[in-house]
Known about the structure:
5 helices, Rossmann fold, 7-stranded parallel sheet, two-stranded antiparallel ribbon, globular, hydrolase activity, 9 strands, Isochorismatase-like_sf, alpha/beta, hydrolase
Amino acid sequence: MNATALIIIDLQRGMLPENTGPRNNPQAEDNAAHLLHAWRVRGMPVVHVRHMSRSPEGSFWPGSSNCEFQPRFEPLPSEHRLEKNVPDAFAGSGLERWLRLRDVHHLVVVGVATNNSVEAAVRAAACLGFDVAVPGDACFTFDKADLGGVVRDAEEWHLMSLSNLDGEYAVVTRTDEILARLG
């Protein structure tokens, strides 16, 4: 897995539990932190992605403390960071070029929200020819109403999103399985 990059999506202060509504996977950040530690110990490529709002009314307007990375996910100087304004981390960000220049073909994608920015990035990555793994226990999402107005819990959205990705866009796995493959 030496040519494998860890892509950390939107683990910003605005996503801390005190700033969000009901969610699933309370251990997701711990699992993402375990993966980040493993990547750092091995000197493998890490990409930190954060969302920045295009509107001053947005929760992630530049300059807001919500935009800052959560302390344990603060990028090291040697790690790549990028900002996005849409759910897809590849759209207009230069991420594909950054990965290709480093001969990275495999990605492990973690973060929030499973059914939004994580799913968008994974779909784009797969369509661009990257081999993608998603440890579902290192991702999370929130309760949300469906088109019929029925509020569905976060776990339902999470599982549906992972089900959409598995097989065609990514291999959905667990943190312990990724760590075991690293050796």
